[in-house]
User: Which sequence fits this backbone?
């Protein structure tokens, strides 16, 4: 039982994801996109980075590569799939998850730590947290502003498919605490099934106790048995 | 610019005939100041580059140094991309990152960290801001995309960079198994020369010679064809392909294509092995039609590597290149003869490789020793001065810059930018002390550079790796005032930065930037920074294992200040380090401040205070026992009672203390001494720190006989800096300080 971390040309958080999963005892391996998904894949990570150099739009090229069709099939069979950062952009570009991630309000790349409020603790990705809990994770993106139509966002919120929102240290969801201008401060959402999720912040960068806090481990626990 | 008459005569004599146009162009580039260091090499012997940890010293693409475990190596290199960044700040800075990363790949290493030291004209000028924004964006774009974190660096503004900004980039690479080490020395005649990476186009023609002239007034339009355009996506593929090639042991030697393109890389590769080459230029994969021999030979198209490959391995190399969508062409082979290039059957170059690489004569230039400025101090109000100095873009927070750099990818960053030095976790290298029998490193995985996490089951503490501390920078105000002493101060300050985080200096590389060396006063200043840096590094026992020289940083606005960027690396057991920010609980000590400890007037020369208010003064006298101070500091920083340590330098104690205060922690400090209030607060004598500790006696005992320790007050939870200096009291709360320090963010957002 091994999680596949899918490597596209330009992926750069792939090894970090393997290392973070190993930290919580989940076996993971790098899978080069052209080699296809191994049959015994127990989960899939679309890691962060700049797949295809972000040409066209972030995630757009990778979303159209053959391995994504295999991942889509696996997801429909219930295999857990997590997209992080550029992986989140791939998730939304491929239609696995709703909405789109577009250029930050600042129009600049931002690498910093943010606070997130857990909106739905009843998913594999958030079961380790309490609803309303505030966690601290790093972001590192230039195109992380979540966009979706008002109607669709309303649907998502009513179906409890918002995983995390950007908030301040006290858990207040404010405009000041919104690092990139995301609609309703959305930082991560679920796909049609709750076994499919994407988020812009990097849980794998907050998972190794030797370099800092480990708030991100809970998200990765979604791959645990 | 073309080959000078003297050089032309030398070449003609050696070849016994007139050089061909391709040869003339190749000699012009390889014998340029940028490639051949004709004006600086006579000075560079001042540097001590040997040491017991040094595996590969100067002269290769990057230096290689062993970590304390002995089996893990790092590479360290530095490069300037000054002129291209003036002409086209975004692409110029971006390709600077690309170049130093490929220098790392050449050694068989995986790039794990970058540091950028940037120098611009006055921050208030629109043109400086345009260059600053473009350069930062270029570094951000390229570095982020290739997944190498930018973890530290420096930014300085000074009027004399107005016509010529500096972009100095350094890179650390990791070699987790000595067998993976590759050099740029061709090994065997009969090996194939294989070019992997981007297709060659007409970009960047003559970049090396462009970098060896003063910038003309119309450089922005005239010289644009000499600036290369980078493609970080291809660079990232090249990083991964290089790793795969090294994994399979397919590479005999390697050199990246930088200055003087294919001709430079391949001739230097075979020259280092005292060999020759036979190259067929039409075999090079090209991006544009109808390129001629000279263009193929000298174009500086980015993201290309030249490899020496055994004939049997060529097919496998091509397969790996193909897997990563990289072009690959077998362009020729290593020989025992001359360096020969053919194009469509015609011989266009036929010259001894070593003559191409090392035949350029050195320049014997006149120098005038710089004079020390006279003392002429301004009258100021202490509070106004505090606000001007703490609110200066030079000393202000650089968060606007490093927020645009991905500084956490690769999950090694234990101390991020914004502190004295970054700390990186090298889990692959067992710390010295954790290995009772000295053999623990053998247990470490060597197959994958990223899998060095120690196994959980072994029951050992998780923190068994080596922490790598990384500091880079220079202060142009210091070296403008006093090139020799200012450069010594730069070395001492970088060493203090890593020691403040509990690390012992291991090695350093330098990037020596100067103006037009044919001006005796400029050359005298340049000589000063070379000797100053060399002397202090030798004194601190830090081998200087490589570097880069960039001269002719001169424009119609005049020469730049002589600028000795130093990138220094230190090591420690584990990755924990005391922060620069106060905890709010300890006593505050100032260690090694001559003005507080004695009746010495330290001098305000080179200070931000004088930069803000005008006036002049001599550069501060350095403290004594500098090596012992650095060594003791590295030890004290890791005392259990130590709460915070911060290097005191740019902006003096005023800036140091202001930087340590936060909403949750303040300080009540009294600074006393015989010198004037302005001197006490703003002098910039390096080799000083502020320490917050729960055991001041232990700190005093540790520094006994090494450096004076002054008890200046205590930290508290007030969130306010209450400062009394002589008869003057100053009070600033954290939000006032934060407002002053956020000047760059405020002005550019």
Assistant:
């Amino acid at each position: 039982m091994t999680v596949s971390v899918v490597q596209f040309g330009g992926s750069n958080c792939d090894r970090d994801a393997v290392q973070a999963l190993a930290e919580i005892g989940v076996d993971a391996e790098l899978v080069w996109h052209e080699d296809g998904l191994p049959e015994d894949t127990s989960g899939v990570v679309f890691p962060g980075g700049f797949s295809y150099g972000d040409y066209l739009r972030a995630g757009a090229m990778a979303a159209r590569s053959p391995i994504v069709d295999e991942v889509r099939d696996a997801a429909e069979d219930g295999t857990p799939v997590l997209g992080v950062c550029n992986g989140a952009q791939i998730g939304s570009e491929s239609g696995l998850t709703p909405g789109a991630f577009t250029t930050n309000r600042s129009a600049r790349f931002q690498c910093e730590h943010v606070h997130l409020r857990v909106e739905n603790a009843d998913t594999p990705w958030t079961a380790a947290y309490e609803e309303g809990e505030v966690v601290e994770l790093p972001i590192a993106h230039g195109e992380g502003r979540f966009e979706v139509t008002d109607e669709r966002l309303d649907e998502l919120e009513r179906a409890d498919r918002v995983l995390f929102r950007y908030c301040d240290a006290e858990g207040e969801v404010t405009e000041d605490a919104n690092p990139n201008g995301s609609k309703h401060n959305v930082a991560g959402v679920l796909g049609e099934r709750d076994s499919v999720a994407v988020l812009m912040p990097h849980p794998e960068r907050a998972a190794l106790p030797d370099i800092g806090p480990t708030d991100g481990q809970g998200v990765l626990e979604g791959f645990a048995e | 610019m073309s080959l000078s008459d003297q050089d032309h005569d030398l070449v003609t004599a050696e070849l016994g005939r007139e050089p061909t146009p391709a040869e003339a162009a190749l000699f012009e580039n390889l014998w340029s100041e940028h490639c051949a260091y004709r004006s600086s090499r006579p000075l560079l012997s001042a540097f001590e580059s040997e040491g017991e940890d040094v595996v590969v010293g100067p002269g290769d693409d990057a230096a290689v140094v062993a970590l304390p475990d002995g089996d893990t190596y790092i590479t360290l290199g530095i490069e300037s991309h000054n002129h291209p960044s003036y002409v086209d700040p975004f692409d110029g800075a971006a390709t600077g990152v690309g170049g130093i990363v490929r220098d790392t790949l050449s050694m068989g290493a995986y790039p794990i960290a970058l540091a950028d030291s940037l120098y611009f004209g006055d921050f208030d000028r629109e043109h400086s801001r345009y260059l600053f924004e473009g350069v930062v964006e270029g570094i951000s774009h390229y570095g982020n995309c290739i997944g190498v974190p930018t973890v530290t660096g420096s930014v300085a503004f000074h009027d004399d960079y107005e016509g010529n900004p500096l972009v100095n980039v350094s890179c650390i690479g990791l070699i987790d198994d000595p067998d993976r080490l590759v050099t740029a020395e061709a090994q065997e005649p009969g090996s194939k020369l294989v070019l992997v990476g981007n297709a060659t186009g007409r970009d960047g023609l003559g970049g090396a010679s462009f970098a060896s002239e003063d910038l003309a007034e119309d450089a922005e339009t005239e010289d644009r064809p000499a600036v290369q355009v980078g493609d970080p996506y291809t660079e990232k593929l090249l990083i991964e392909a290089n790793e795969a090639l090294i994994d399979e042991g397919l590479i005999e030697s390697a050199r990246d294509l930088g200055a003087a393109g294919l001709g430079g890389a391949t001739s230097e590769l075979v020259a280092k092995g005292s060999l020759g080459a036979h190259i067929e230029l039409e075999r090079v994969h090209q991006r544009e039609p109808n390129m001629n021999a000279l263009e193929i030979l000298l174009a500086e198209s980015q993201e290309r590597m030249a490899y020496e490959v055994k004939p049997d391995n060529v097919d496998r190399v091509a397969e790996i290149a193909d897997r990563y969508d990289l072009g690959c062409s077998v362009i020729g082979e290593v020989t025992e003869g001359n360096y020969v290039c053919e194009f469509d059957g015609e011989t266009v170059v036929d010259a001894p490789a070593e003559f191409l690489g090392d035949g350029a004569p050195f320049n014997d230039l006149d120098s005038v020793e710089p004079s020390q400025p006279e003392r002429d101090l301004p009258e100021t109000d202490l509070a106004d001065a505090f606000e001007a100095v703490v609110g200066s873009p030079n000393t202000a927070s650089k968060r606007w810059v490093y927020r645009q750099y991905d500084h956490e990818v690769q999950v090694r960053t234990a101390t991020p930018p914004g502190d004295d030095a970054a700390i990186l976790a090298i889990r692959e290298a067992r710390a010295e002390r954790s290995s009772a029998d000295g053999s623990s490193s053998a247990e470490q995985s060597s197959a994958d550079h990223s899998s060095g996490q120690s196994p959980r089951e072994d029951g050992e503490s998780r923190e068994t790796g080596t922490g790598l501390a990384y500091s880079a920078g220079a202060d142009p105000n210091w070296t403008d005032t006093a090139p020799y002493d200012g450069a010594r101060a730069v070395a001492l300050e970088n060493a203090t930065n890593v020691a403040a985080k509990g690390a012992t200096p291991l090695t350093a590389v330098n990037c020596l930037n100067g103006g037009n060396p044919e001006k005796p006063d400029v050359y005298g200043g340049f000589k000063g920074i070379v000797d100053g840096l060399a002397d202090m590094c030798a004194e601190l026992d830090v081998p200087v294992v490589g570097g880069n020289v960039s001269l002719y940083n001169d424009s119609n606005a005049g020469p730049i200040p002589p600028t000795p960027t130093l990138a220094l690396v230190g090591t420690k057991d584990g990755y924990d380090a005391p922060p620069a920010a106060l905890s709010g609980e300890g006593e505050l000590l100032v260690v090694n401040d001559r003005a507080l400890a004695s009746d010495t007037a330290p001098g305000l020369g080179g200070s931000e205070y004088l930069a803000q208010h005008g006036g002049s003064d001599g550069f501060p006298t350095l403290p004594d026992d500098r090596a012992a101070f650095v060594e003791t500091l590295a030890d004290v920083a890791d005392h259990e009672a130590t709460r915070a340590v911060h290097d005191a330098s740019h902006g003096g104690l005023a800036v140091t203390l202001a930087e340590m205060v936060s909403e949750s922690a303040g300080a009540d400090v009294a600074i006393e001494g015989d010198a004037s209030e302005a001197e006490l607060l703003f002098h910039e004598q390096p080799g000083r720190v502020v320490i917050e500790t729960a055991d001041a006696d232990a700190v005093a005992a540790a520094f006994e006989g090494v450096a004076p320790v002054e008890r200046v007050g205590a930290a508290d939870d007030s969130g306010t800096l209450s400062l009394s200096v002589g008869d003057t009291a100053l009070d600033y709360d954290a939000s006032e300080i934060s407002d002053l320090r956020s000047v760059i963010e405020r002005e550019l957002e």
Summary: Chain A has a mean pLDDT of 96.
